[in-house]
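Structure tokens please, single chain.
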Amino acid sequence: QVQLVESGGGLVQAGGSLRLSCAASGGSFSNYHMGWFRQAPGKEREFVAVINWIGDSPYYADSVKGRFTISRDNAKNTVYLQMNILKPEDTAVYYCAASRLYRARPESMDYWGEGTLVTVSS
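Here you go.
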């Protein structure tokens, strides 16, 4: 059983930056591919980024490509999401997730965190 706890969300102006962290415990972190997803009010949860277990193969949604960077530190059992040039449409609850499969779909994730709210003001 893997527990995931996100942190780093908050209120930021458009054009600003935030760095989200997701700390994992209770399992073998390096055995899992890690993803970030987000859910805006009234919308379905959507894929943001995923990174493979060793950290050398990131993949991004088109909407964040070139602005967001996913990374991981297996020694610290932590995955990060650096978000730059934030836009109001990036406002959402951001969730990290762990999966034994390298996938970009929410239904493929095995474990989820509780989420952290990111609000981007215009």
